[in-house]
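Thread: "does anyone have the structure for this chain?"

Original post by V.I.:
We have the sequence but no experimental structure in hand. Need at least a predicted one for the grant figures.
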Amino acid sequence: MPEIKKNGKRSNLELKMTYLSDDSLNDSHWDIIKPKSLVIADAYLSGNVVQVRRGERSLCCSNMLLFGVGMNIDTGEIKQKLKSADFCRVRLEPICMHRKSLRWKARFHEAWPKIKEQYPTARYMHLVLTVRNCDIKDLRETIKQMNTAWNRLTNRKTFPSTGFIKSIEVTREMDYCDKCKGSIAKRGTCKNKNNHTYNQNSHAHIHVLLQVPASYFTINYITKDKWADIWQQSLRVDYKPVVWVSAVKPKKEQESLEDAVASAVKEVAKYCIKFDDVIEYLEKPGGLKWFLELDNQLEKTRAVSLGGSFKKFMSEEEPTFEEMLTPEDENEEVAKVLEYREYLFKNLEKKYALQKIIEVKNDEIAI
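Reply from O.Q.:
Generated one for you, tokens below.
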């Protein structure tokens, strides 16, 4: 990060040559995610009247970013924190999806002391429940059926969880790929993406973070096959659905259980669809039609729902504008704001460029 100058001014040439990624490596992700946002905005502009409005809002999402720069009195470290941005709050827009997922993780960290106090020996699991693929036009009805089945499952006397965080993710059905065979797990890293072909079907699946008693793994353990049987009964279908389940535990020696569960919260509450996948879909035949219908089908459906201990200690409401400004990795206040830096996204360079420095004097802002 460049040195803060006492008069808070730089030459015009210096401002033009300075980018957000130069000033703060921690904020370089803005240069990656904003171009993806513009791709989604362009897709919306091809839709109906409502979707065109969403596209116009997405085009303007976070075009200007204002950061406060300050020094930590104890460490002397210079930090930069987002203070203002124009979020569009369009559900399938990448920047807002990313900020919301970070905020869900922050909510968990804030609730963790109370959860840990009331459930000191609890364990955690990541559960994925699937159904047969459906035509994208039938997605809303499929999600409704899945939610009904989930309610049946949670009302069973044998349901082992004391709390959960649940979301629904949607992907587009792949026709075939001779490398990844259409596997959702392998699709993202497949090096054969140019040969991927898709149809107009969708694959909806439920992600759940489950809190369970410690005794679950010794006395009341449910195998993957048993979970599949229970889910089939809850769905009331004549086929055995695919189920995936895994215990949540620290992946590294220095990682705490809190951090491991927080990462699982972010995974579960991330996106209803991965925006990197959407960009790939849009490059394929029929991708634009599929995306616009996806937007129609997801309208007024709940993105994330909570139950049990999580609902008791965490808010279930959509993250507010103010919360999106301060997700968990930017939650620490700088000791004292010394200046503000305003960055504007430049389409040609595909980067955020420094436009203005606003010096703070005696608790007043002087330009």
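V.I.: this helps a lot. The first strand starts at residue 64 and ends at 71.
O.Q.: and The chain has two domains: 1-90+320-367, 121-274+297-317.
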